[in-house]
Design a protein that fits this description.
Layout (H helix, E strand, L loop, with lengths): L3 H7 L17 E4 L2 E4 L22 H23 L13
Antiparallel strand pairs: 1-2
Length: 95
């Protein structure tokens, strides 16, 4: 069976180093067998690639790209804190 990291590699996705938060918050809190992520942004080299509302300053395609970047950053934070993505069984909620 393929590990999550191997599957990401197969898809051409390389996890970056876990991004540092832009504010004074902790991006990951673990309690028991649950992990909570907060403030996950589409940071690239520590900066937001763009700002603005979708349909005004940001195109739908740019927003889609930023959502993918944020999801990859979330996985990078999880791997950095858990050591492996194998420990993740399911995602309960995304907001």
């Amino acid at each position: 069976m393929m590990t999550p990291e191997e599957r990401l590699k197969q898809l051409g996705i390389e996890l970056p180093d876990a991004p540092k938060p832009l504010g004074s918050y902790v991006p990951l809190v673990r309690t028991g067998n649950l992990v909570f992520l907060s403030g996950i942004l589409p940071l690239v080299e520590g900066k937001l690639p763009r700002e603005g509302r979708v349909g005004e300053k940001v195109t739908v395609d740019e927003a889609r790209e930023d959502a993918l970047t944020a999801a990859i950053n979330a996985l990078a934070i999880l791997k950095s804190n858990l050591g492996t993505l194998n420990k993740i069984r399911r995602c309960v909620k995304i907001t």
